[in-house]
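Bench notes, bay 3.
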Amino acid sequence: MITSTSNQHIARLHALHSSKGRREEQAWLIEGPHVLEAAFDAGVVPQLIIYDPDWLGQDAEGQRLLARLGEARAGGAEVFEASAAAVDRASETRTPQGVVAAVSGAEVTAEKVRQRRRGRLRPLVLVLDAISDPGNLGSILRSALAADVDEVLLTIGCADPLAPKVVRAGSGAHFHLPVRADLDWEHIRQVLNGAPAVSQIVATDSRAARTYDSYDLTRRTGLLIGNEAHGISAKARQLSTHTASIPMWNKVESLNAAIAASVILFEAARQRRVAGANLGTTEE
């Protein structure tokens, strides 16, 4: 059992708290039974796992995970029991959840993730314009996966999608949702105009006369969500072909970026369900 907080494996996991450490290690941090289960379910084997057996043994989720750690070891992971103090040092959270792991960055490239997905048509491409809050970014990624977005494009200025707070808020979305980060606007334009090209690029704007639910979001669409404080940038406006607002009562002027994104994403999902029902098809 690892008991020292200065152990080399603990030090490696702690290094993944920072963007510098993630670049040097070419890996990222996942924490807690839920996200580790999501990795296993996606067929992803972490490079390194440390866990507190007493903590995981407290509930059914943790006990289920304990049973899968042997499979991870057989799949090539380094797996070690650790004391609560060692797990606390490796963890980025204030309240560690008993298990911390390092996953190769190669496991979540957009190309690798796309290979895991079923091949049905997904019409919506989500573009995030300088979403800087890690919690917002992770929540948007989780909603994007739930609404079956094709892929997410992150502009320069967005939070690091592999930062621990983003990963926790994403709750496993990283293993199934293609994400491309640090893209300039010319690159984004090329992606949206590539095959299959979008037929409309809709940017959220609280001042827009046209509402989000008036658009046909079953078409191949680029959806632009702007920065939490400043909204969409000038370059985003230049790229967009339409703008959309979310009607609100009681003099509320704007919504949290993650909530606004989710409202529109699930409207798009609703429209696809209706279209599918009319055609006699269903989606999972």
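Next record in the batch:
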Amino acid sequence: MPSFAREMLREIYEQPEALRRTLAHYLEGDRLKPEVAALLADWPNPAGEILIAASGSSRHSGLAAEILLEDLCGLAVDVEYASEYCCRGGGDLRHPSVLVLSQSGETSDTLAALRAARRRGEKTLAITNAAASAIASEAEISMPLAAGAERAIPATKSFTCQLAVLYLLALYEGARVGRMDSEALTARIGELRALPGKIEAQLDGWWEKTARLATKYNSAATFLYLGRGIHYAIAREGALKMKEASYVHAEGYPAGELNHGPNALVSDRVPLVVLATVDRTLDASILRYEMTLQLLRDMKKQGARVIAVANEAMKRYIGW
């Protein structure tokens, strides 16, 4: 385990316990606590339309939530930059339910977006890391995280806790609208409960590997982060982290979009960071994985340097 010379590193290592606290705050066995379910029962609008407004890392968790809520629940979800939503003018005739995300609960653009939604009479839900914050207090429903104080500027444990609560929200909605039976719900919550322990077991290994990679790629001019589906949201977040923590330029792209212009940048000085994990129980995940592998083969022919984030069992198939 490294010594914690930086708050960000300390908070990376605090993620497992932060996740445990957050899950305990919302779960009772393999179900949402009754009081939480009661709060959420009337939140979605009748047409199943949701608008997510957030900034920075919170917007990236919102992009992940868009995939979860659409795929697991059949809802129609839009994700807006909070800074844009509050100054667009006009009105949304659909009157979607509005979900706002903020680590601090005080983000000015997100607070303005929340107030704009309330003026329009839209139902509002806030997920923050501060239960007494302005955003948590002004939203109709508040789902606070239990990540604990986050001192580093780049979000780490609050981001993973946001993802966990958004996943719980999607599981609850999926069950409520009949898109998920009790057996599937129990299995998914069981997987979520096992996640903190799995992260804990990997942290030291990740630290050692990334320390070696930092030395190997220290001459890179920029990084391109790539992912498909929900991994695109994480690619965007990875690129933001590179910029925030290292002052090195990085961009996040959907993996399939690399061939539509950005591949011109691929060179020895522009490494690719590719999310290439797979869930063999899901046909869509297998398809995304195989398409990503083909992209990597093509980029290798172009001379790309690749850092692949992959399943342990899949490393031999990646070949980089």
